[in-house]
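Our consortium's second objective concerns turning raw sequence data into structural hypotheses that experimental partners can test. To show how far this objective has progressed, the report includes one record in full. It was chosen at random from the queue rather than selected for favorable results. The single chain below, 346 residues long, was entered without modification.
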Amino acid sequence: MPHTLRPLIASTALLCAAFAASATDVPQQDVKGLTDPPGLKRYAGSVLVYRDDVAYDEVKWPTAKALQRDDKWQVPQALARSGQRSVAQYLTPEGRTALEVLRNYQQELKGAGYETVYECAGEACGDARDIGIYGMSSLVMPKTWESKVGNNSPAACGAGNIVSDFRYAVLDNKATGAALAVMAWKPGILSAYCDEKEFQKRTSVFVAHVSPKAREQKMETISASEMGKSLDANGRVAIYGILFDTNKADIKPESRPSLEQIGALLKAQPALKLHVVGHTDNVGPLAANLDLSRRRADAVAAALGRDYGIARDRLTANGVASLAPVASNRDEAGRAKNRRVELVLQ
């Protein structure tokens, strides 16, 4: 053997040994600090590897095959909910199939008033080969999942590319307004830092739950004077106090203080003409959000005319969906800032 190859072979052997020594093992107990979301049971013998909760979020879980359009994953139908959101990811014991796990969840939740409104397997769900920010799973998992789990955590090792035995279901509780989505799969190709063979013996389970909860109103009402100053300085002003239910254009009653201030501004400046522009986040198809943002702007203009006597020729309603964000849509805090009505000088 040439002497020049011996150091290379030795280095390679050391590198492989280092990978093997640092490989993430299948955990035998819950990741430290994690507990089950309140009111949700787990499949017997499973270990909890990831959990993420937010006080208020909006979800749109696919209830039809996911399709890729313009490099984005979209669905023609979805179950939309907003409220308190919890997600949890588990690893089952060896030898359990995704179907077995899913049926157990469905049976357990049926007794709690949930009914399955959509179910699919494999390619019938859309592209379900990769778990994370790509493919069908990206429409169910929080946008922050991949950045939070990294490359070699038990949650990341339980995901993978080219997964198999993928199952998905959406369950709805019409009596309470709560909803739940379950994904189950066999991990596929994993990071070099994962004990791939052992993880592939398990089934991964991802459970997302939303329960109705009113959003805390944290935005202060902007006065007519403040609106006028912003319009003079910037040509526009963002209004966050006009609220709508998820996927609807009906103005909620708590929007009245903001509408009153807009009406006061327009009455104080009779020559003022405004564009009323609806904005959404990027959750859901662009075409649907364009229509929704326009209808919301129409609703605001109509309310100002009907309830505050503002001539409609002073207001032009438009909707731009998610095309003019003021923050990142990767988390709920950013999406909340992007959902707004803006007044723009004509």
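The partners drew two points from this record. The first strand starts at residue 47 and ends at 62. Residues 27-211 form one domain. Both points have been shared with the crystallography group to help prioritize constructs.
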